[in-house]
Amino acid sequence: MCGRYTSFLPAEAVARMFHTVNPLPNVAPSWNVAPTQSAMVVGAGQTAASALGIQMAQLGQQYASRGLSIPPTLEVRPGYRFVVMVTKDMVLPGPWRG
Question: CB within 10 Å: which end of the chain, N or C, has fewer?
């Protein structure tokens, strides 16, 4: 499972809790924050380590979003039996009609 976490407090509550001085981000609370979603980061000052951590988080977000833009593909050798479970309607090209 990928790294997800909960961010259930509004930005104003986080700002009061940590006494932040920077502008508040426009991020809605969520009980299931995915790695590709924007999230709040509170650092302990603008030290080189915290700046590097923020840059690494942004880089990871860009890398993950690049991978999500690739459409899913499935290649199976001819004659191989397999089962497909779908959760949405599939539209098949060609003469097949439902």
Answer: N
- The confidence band for 34, taking pLDDT boundaries of 50, 70 and 90, is confident
Residue 25 in tokens: 């981000």
- Cα–Cα distances (Å) from 38 to 28, 77, 91, in that order, read 9, 40, 32
Which residue range forms the structural domain that includes residue 31? 5-68
CB environment 13-41: b (16+ within 10 A), e (fewer):
ebbeeeeeeeeeeeeeeeeebebeeeebe
Residue 97 lies in a domain: no
Q: In this structure, what DSSP letter does residue 78 have?
A: T
Query: How many domains, in total, are found in the chain?
Result: 1
